[in-house]
Amino acid sequence: MKKHLLLISLAASTVLADTFTLGQINVLNVPLDESPFEQVITSDTIATQNSETVSDALDNISGINQDVQGGRGESTLYIRGFDARRIGVFIDGIPIYVPYDGNFDYDRFLTNDIAEIDVEKGYSSIVYGANTMGGVVNIVSKRPTKALEGDMKVGMVLDSDTAFSRKTASLNLGTRQDHLYAQLGAVYSDQSHFRLSDNYTPPSGSVQPKGDRLHSQSEDYKISLKGGYIADDGSEVAIGYSNQNGQKQQPPVSDPAYSQSKYWDWPYWDKETLFISGQKNLAAGYIKALAYYDTSKNSLYAYDNVSYSTMNTGKSFKSKYDDYSYGGRLEYGVELEKNFLTAAANYKKDSHKGYDISKTTGVDSMSENYEDHSISLGLEDTYTVNTQWQLLGGVSYDRREGDKIFDTNTAYINMLALKTQSSINPQAAVIFTPDTTSKIRASVSKKTYMPSMKDRYSRKFNSSVPNVDLQNEVATHYELSYQKQLGEFTARLNGFFTRQDDAIQSVVYAPNPAYTQNQNVGSFDHRGVETELNYKSDGLEAGGNYTYISVKNRTNETIKQIDVPKHQIFAFAQKELGCGFSLYGDMKFRKGAYEQKADKSYVINPTFTTFDIKGVYKATEAITAEIGVKNLTDKLYAYDLGFPMAGREFFANLRYTF
Length: 658
Prior knowledge:
The chain has 4 helices and 32 strands. It is mainly β. The protein has a 22-stranded antiparallel barrel. A 5-stranded mixed beta sheet has the order 1-6-7-4-5. A two-stranded antiparallel ribbon has the order 2-3.
């Protein structure tokens, strides 16, 4: 009867001891590796697969596909066909997506300072709050368990011409002194360029020659600090701070047939977060609280041409965004006989400020200032019928109110107004455990996406009409899942169907056909299958996953869902060779994703397969060295046509753990 409570009170010392458990949120109060709802990417898996960024790591999970949007120079992802704006993104349970448009550049977030990444697809805990329609990604940081522990890592990358192209470094340092602990993390990446595949041939009218990718430099670094206190009963309080800074160049389109030519730069892309979190364990439950303040600041420069040196034409500009969010969460869990009840309340305040910067004087002036606040109230229950059956149910009430509109753009200014959206989102699931090696789960959940500030207010460079009357998008998820462990094999099979209604799409504005407007006119069906099979023995680990996804537009079949492959495969193997040596390799296969050309017609992205391989030498328990090759066959491929990815790359890493 007290197994849930035991896991809660001892989480700080026994369950995932090197993980910051205050930052975790899960549907069931059991270890995440035993849950049929969450999938976890551990730091060990991230290191083995050589995933430098969060987007690299997530691309290896079934049901998730990476997408690199060349027009914005950022890496994003889809969960079962839902784009990143419809996915809740959190670090240690703190929402960190950009308030204005909900976008999130996953390539700006390096992986060497994180403990794990938790993913929920479709059905997710109501504790996260609003706007988790497509799923949840929660990046969880490290927490020390020893008096002194840590690791240092350095890496380098050479392009296919053996020119030095990228360097990385990281440091994690932690201490646990009786009840107190402290953790420091620092990561750094500096890319001077990347080189295209030698199979690339410049199309007619292209500004991109063979060889090095134009304008492909980037730099990112982050420092994070955390300190906490753990009581004898497992109660815990922690305060943390992180400061992330980046800058990136945006390569131009290599084929003008696929995108308009844009010559953009992002001089800075910065985030800063401060939080305090705590959990008090009670005789029959717990109380958990979180308060946070998060800022997102970035700047965008648009130049005249590929020289990236002049700003004389009308399409050139300088601008910056200065956004912030603050909020909190209160969570209460209690065990009542066979029930485990969880109640949660979330509050979030979002502010967006946009500035135009003079191209001659550099003086900035505010062009827009929007503010919203949202609340989410939720209750969920896990009823344990017996050792084999569990019933889950939950419901949340989400509400978002517009608080402020300031806009110097006078186009259709009379159509801007403060509005309120709300939704009630129920969900239910049943879990059957026929034996200790199997789990079967069936679930249904309703989730909503409340239109962002950009959805409601943006004029899109004076080509669109705002629409403050946009309604929530609504998705109803149905899923059947089966997990099985058989000796050294583990397997998972997921089947899902989602009906998405009132989807926001840009359509011709009837009163003035020269303009477009966002409207709730779409209805989509997402259906698919995910299969996973893994094997692990003393000297060999191998496995992989296959995902099939079909997204169909029920209202207008001529409008396609872009960037989502119909078929995707990830497979890997690692073999211990003896004397500290091992060999690792993986492959990725992607087929059937629609892309849209500059003339708005659709094409299917060519099928591609890439291979990575590396050799690992563990000299001692503390020292590990790696050398390897990414894109072994120098495959020419692109997630976004017209923006080809790197060709063959050689890399080396050295890590010291203490």
